[in-house]
Amino acid sequence: MKLSTVILVTASGLLLVAAASFRRKTRPVNITTDDLGYQEHSPEELASENLLDLNTTSPSEFLRLGLDRETSDRIVDNRPYRNKLDLLSRMVIPEGAYNLIRNQVGVARATEPIKASG
């Protein structure tokens, strides 16, 4: 075998190993019953717990939670929500963004039908 072939094969092997080690490691979302609470909160209850209502909060308030403008706008555009888990089940935001805000948001009086994606 030529030296250049050996170098090329070795380099390719190293690149494959490096690429495999950099694969995105996903952590499972730890869903609790708090994520599912359908119509159990009133606007007053959310306010008393310092939670933002996914169906009424302005995009700028979502920005204060650490979300970027695009994610904030996507949340508003996909209203109404029945529960905060709709953000994941309807693929409105990625898991990382959900984990960032999950303890800071809720849904009050979720009576409107949700939007179907398609």
How would you describe the overall organization of this protein?
This protein has 118 residues and is mainly α. The protein has a domain at 30-106. It contains seven helices and two strands; from the N terminus they run αααβααααβ. The chain has helices spanning 3-21, 33-36, 43-48, 59-63, 69-77, 86-89, 95-101; strands at residues 52-53, 105-106. It has a two-stranded parallel ribbon with strand order 1-2. It is elongated, with a radius of gyration of 21 Å. The mean pLDDT is 79.
Show the helix and strand layout:
Elements: H1 3-21, H2 33-36, H3 43-48, E1 52-53, H4 59-63, H5 69-77, H6 86-89, H7 95-101, E2 105-106
Parallel strand pairs: 1-2
In which order are the strands of the major sheet placed? 1-2
The oligomeric state is single chain
How much β-strand is present in the residues?
A: under 5%
The whole-number mean of residue pLDDT values reads 79
* SS-derived structural category: mainly alpha
The percentage helix is 40-55%
Question: Shape from CA axes?
Answer: elongated
Nearest-angstrom radius of gyration? Answer: 21 Å
Order of helices and strands: HHHEHHHHE
Q: Compute the number of helices.
A: 7
> In angstroms, what separates the terminal alpha carbons?
55 Å
Query: How many β-strand stretches?
Result: 2
Low-confidence runs of at least 5 consecutive residues: none
- Summarize the main sheet: 2 strands, parallel
Offer a concise description of the structure.
The chain has 118 residues and is mainly alpha-helical. The chain is built from seven helices and two strands; from the N terminus they run H-H-H-E-H-H-H-H-E.
